[in-house]
User: What shape does this take?
Amino acid sequence: MKAVIFEKPGDESVLTIGEADRPAMEPGCVRLRVHSSAVNRADLLQRMGFYPPPPGASPILGLEACGEITELAPDLAETGAWRLGDTVMALLSGGGYGEEVVVDARHVMPVPDQIGSPDAGAVPEVFLTAYLNLVILGGLRAGERVLIHGGSGGVGTAAIQIAKHLGARVWTTAGSAERASRCEGLGADVAIDYRS
Assistant: This one.
């Protein structure tokens, strides 16, 4: 299959489109034909040689993707949770920059109607990270106040939107007046340019 690959660490110039092995199907997994993926900090660090893929993970970059289910592991066929042809988004341990990826079905989510296929490839990593920290670990509820550092980054922008959706008051920091303004555009009640 085709994939975005690199032979040695470096800047973006080391990335090429090349051939990679098709991932093997495993129990409890689905195969996706990838429609879109995103660039995350871990992808950049891996490309630069500072972040090796976890043991057993694909060496292909891409920690999230949106795609069409083209194969179900035999043990999933009877559950009915997913069907061939479903368009889904998924959190990956790697491989999103390939034409296909095999992913644990527990890490697959339906694409919300209001997002659409291309954008959904950039949702799982940042929104699940923000949700985990704000809601599951932090217990954020309506009426509470939250300070989000780095509000203009991927996780920060997701955190602002989740916190506002929950009814929280949001303070955030950002590295310039322009970035602070973007945070306010996402719903931050107060956005502080920490460099001024």
Q: What stands out?
A: The helical segments are 41-47, 117-120, 124-137, 154-166, 177-185. The longest helix spans residues 124-137. Strands lie at 2-5, 16-19, 29-37, 64-72, 87-91, 100-104, 108-110, 145-148, 169-174, 190-193. The longest strand covers residues 29-37.
